[in-house]
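Backbones bend. Our protein:
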Amino acid sequence: MKTFGYELILDLSNCSVEKFNRTDLTKFFVEICELIDMKREDLHFWDYEGYEDEIPYDQPHLVGTTAVQFISTSNITIHTLEILKAVYVNIFSCKEFNKDVAENFTCNFFKGDIDNSHFIERGKK
């Protein structure tokens, strides 16, 4: 069977939480898309910006940012959790990309350590 997609699943710990904001996350998406040659489309954020009074302080593991950068061949998703100093990234594309470049850039951008990294060729048997 033919490969129909490529997915990098990356979990980082000990990250710089100073990067967990919309400005730096946007910069991350712009730069990684340039590096792995992906065309950016819509970018969406889910966080508490503008809704600070709704932050679930009794559940700090839920406080973070989720963002989806749609690309012309699929999407890049990121989840940040400040209390854990963690970043979780999924890059999925029907277009092949260099996983090592994406992994190294992400690790360096967030100044984190790789806990888990998986690269999957979707549809391949």
